Amino acid sequence: MRKIIIYTFLITIINFISCSSIPKNTELKTEKSDFIIAFGSCNKQSKANILWKEIAKNEPNLWIWGGDNIYADTEDMTKMREDYQELRNQQGYLQLTKNIPVLATWDDHDYGLNDAGIEFTKKKESQELFLDFFDVPKNDSRRKREGIYHSQIFSTKKGSIKVIVLDTRYFRTSLTKAANKRYQPNIFGEGTILGADQWNWLENELKISKTDFTIIVSSIQFLSSEHGFETWGNFPHEIEKMKNLIKKTASKNVLFLSGDRHISEFSRDTIEGLNYPIIDFTSSGLTHSYTSYSGEPNKFRVKEVVKEISFGLLLIDFDKKSIVMQMRGDKNILLQELKQVYP
Questions:
Q1: pTM
Q2: Alpha-helical regions (H) of the chain
Q3: CATH number at residue 211
């Protein structure tokens, strides 16, 4: 009897040590959630993408492209079409998306010109190729207007989510060069990111929405603005306009998704009069990242910057009114996590 007790005690100690010494970057199974959104950006179609199979392991209900879905950087629409075809030929991407819906915005490299906005001369032709690649129906409103902005509601038995995809390229005023960094903010309240028509559309989308959560997809970062690259911070008045619009329309549980930067990070800010924080979840990139990253300021940053290739996950729980945000990398390793419970 004494031997059995000692043996049981030893087994308990061994199990405790084993459980306590799980490596930090171990593959962890995705929590059971009511709705799972996977998203990512910065995908070079000519590079092997090792993350498609890892994304699929999480069994997402929706895939969202955050921009730079291909790297075309061209005014030659034949080349751009071939670049899209190269992405279409990737078996991992085809397997991931064959049974789930896909939403997408673009950024500069799939728009056609690095850091470009309204001045890009081939934007209409580029829009047509974008819509063709994503199989947008011929009678869709995006086929009849300028810009690729779009919204869609996803409903479950427990609740609903509205995904609003912004176009931060087609109407965006040209950026102002800076002496000591790439661009400087327009402090005089001039210029626009979304353009008048898209702003009016967005206000109506937020005003009529009755969903439990609202996900706003912006190809460039909404909150981080000190690094000097492309960001909403180059147009500070547009940030304030967005914040005021969210408050004015009493929008429920708004979360921003962004890409572009070749790093992943969480940023968080508060809006006076709004009873939940605004979070900007940046996930970038899918095939390449800023591995030599050594630091940059971001007063809104939560936790640490992830510089490995990664994709983002949103695990939505309607009963708990919560979203668990995860950055995951190769072998589905959990790199960082942030949970937000909404009122």
A1: 0.91
A2: 2-20, 52-57, 77-88, 91-97, 108-111, 123-133, 195-208, 236-248
A3: 3.60.21.70
